[in-house]
TrEMBL record, chain A:
Residues 99-217 form the GST C-terminal domain. This is glutathione transferase. Belongs to the GST superfamily. Mu family. It catalyses: RX + glutathione = an S-substituted glutathione + a halide anion + H(+). It comes from Orchesella dallaii. It comes from the Eukaryota.
From TrEMBL, chain B:
PANTHER family: GLUTATHIONE S-TRANSFERASE, GLUTATHIONE TRANSFERASE. Residues 4-89 form the GST N-terminal domain. This is glutathione transferase. Residues 92-210 form the GST C-terminal domain. It comes from Orchesella dallaii. Conjugation of reduced glutathione to a wide number of exogenous and endogenous hydrophobic electrophiles. It catalyses: RX + glutathione = an S-substituted glutathione + a halide anion + H(+). Belongs to the GST superfamily. Mu family. The lineage of its organism: Eukaryota, Metazoa, Ecdysozoa, Arthropoda, Hexapoda. It holds the Pfam family GST_N.
Length: 226, 219
């Protein structure tokens, strides 16, 4: 089946806000997989509305229109974790984890860290109040302790092999440390994990490249600016 | 110990435990249930007394003990059950991304928007939710098209999650699926699966409540 030369030249497109947000794990994975991709940035209008995104959204034909999205040839996928797994499945299936036990562990960690990230952390930033911050401050060390105990002295979340979940966990920990630089003080293995991730050759190159978006973490519309 | 039945621990509500109960019934697994209830003062003390002693990596409800395996996180449990008892429920590779998308999309709608509204109910949240739900249920309906199940002609683990979410949504707003007959069809089809029908009609089945007594809006 001949593929048109135009299709072959199309880079995958990752669409997201011009922030780290939920897309950074995907950007890191694309870099790790050495995929030459286009980072399509969306920005808020001067009035801080999402109109530029809404205009594009009508034309993209996504089943669940949302950011981030990945357009890979004919295939379109949304939901950041679904994108991570799609990339793993199509480029490096080992990243999904090998064996039933490992896969169950990965599912558990993935769901657990997602709740910490989105429901506890990000919801707090966007709707910031002192009260929510206090609640978050109580919860965060407990949850990080579970993660730290789970990882023990393994190199990666599931053991000795890197998987898609490591890309998620790295970015989450990065964001948490930007909000509170001391949050990992009691968890050396999590600090080591971050350094290990940053030292991966492809990741190191990406972080130091001109294409790398270092900040901000979230939108100007978040009550807590970060 | 080796012959002990699997054990599901959860609140004595439908909540996030029900999809797991349904899947266990569908798979014909003989399981034990540990029901947790709030104290008369509506605290979680009964659960907290157990929480750190169960050997769970990420203590939470629901939890599931299966031989020497201990898991938390609803969807992780659903997938573990599929993986170990009926791998077809994970779906064929071609639709794996579709399943992931539905799983993630629905979880956000259910947990952040719906459950958040139920627990912290205000008129404003309810109005916002209804507007969001109309759009998002529309997407789910469009994705399903005229398939029997959410991702195609074969049932997958995510249908167990979809069914229970739709059940909750309808309890809150009985007309929310009026424009989406295919989603209503999925619910009927699910309820008519022989193992599910048997379970729903059995004394073990927990019909309600859906949420904890601490929810502002009682469902």
């Amino acid at each position: 089946m001949a593929t048109s030369p135009i299709v072959q030249k199309l880079k995958p497109i990752l669409g997201y806000w011009k922030i780290r947000g939920l897309a950074h794990p995907v950007r890191f994975l694309l870099a790790y997989l050495e995929v030459d991709f286009e980072d399509k940035y969306y920005e808020l209008t001067p009035e801080l509305t999402k109109d530029y995104w809404f205009e594009d959204r009508k034309k993209l034909n996504l089943e669940f229109p949302n950011l981030p999205y990945l357009i890979d040839g004919d295939f379109k996928v949304t939901e950041s974790r679904a994108i991570l797994k799609y990339l793993a499945r199509t480029r490096k299936p080992d990243l999904l984890g090998n064996g039933l036990e490992v896969q169950t562990r990965l599912d558990t960690v993935e769901n657990f860290v997602y709740d910490l990230w989105i429901i506890n952390f990000v919801e707090m930033l966007y709707g910031y109040t002192e009260e929510r911050h206090q609640k978050y401050k109580e919860l965060e060390p407990l949850k990080l302790a579970y993660l730290s105990s789970f990882m023990k002295d393994n190199s990666w979340v599931s053991g000795n092999n890197i998987t898609y979940v490591d890309f998620l966990v790295y970015e989450i920990l990065y964001q948490l440390t930007i909000f509170d630089p001391n949050c990992l003080d009691k968890f050396n293995n999590l600090k080591e994990f971050m350094k290990r991730f940053e030292s991966l050759p492809a990741i190191n190159r990406y972080i130091n490249s001109k294409d790398f978006l270092n900040a901000p973490l979230y939108s100007k519309t978040a009550i807590y600016k970060i | 110990m080796a012959n002990s039945k699997p054990l599901l621990g959860y609140w004595k509500i439908r909540g996030l435990g029900q999809p797991v109960r349904f899947l266990l019934a569908y798979l014909d697994v003989d399981f034990d249930e540990k029901f947790y209830e709030l104290t008369p003062e509506l605290t979680s003390d009964n659960w907290l007394a157990d929480k750190e002693k169960l050997g769970l990596d990420f203590p939470n409800l629901p939890y599931f003990f299966d031989g020497s395996t201990k898991i938390t996180e609803t969807r992780a449990i659903l997938k573990h059950l599929s993986r170990t008892r009926k791998p077809e429920l994970l779906g064929k590779t071609e639709i794996a991304s579709k399943i992931d998308m539905v799983d993630n999309f629905l979880y956000d709608l259910y947990y952040i928007e719906f459950a958040g509204m139920i627990y912290g109910y205000t008129e404003e949240l309810a109005t916002t939710y209804k507007e969001t739900a109309a759009v998002k249920l529309g997407r789910l309906s469009s994705l399903m098209k005229d398939n029997e199940w959410i991702t195609g002609k074969d049932i997958t683990y995510v249908d167990f999650f979809v069914y229970e979410c739709l059940y909750h949504f309808i309890k809150f707003d009985s007309s929310c699926l009026d424009k989406f007959p295919n989603l209503k069809g999925l619910m009927t089809r699910f309820e008519n699966l022989p193992e599910i029908k048997k379970y729903i009609n059995s004394p073990k089945f927990l019909e309600g409540p859906i949420y904890l007594a601490t929810a502002k809006y009682q469902l």
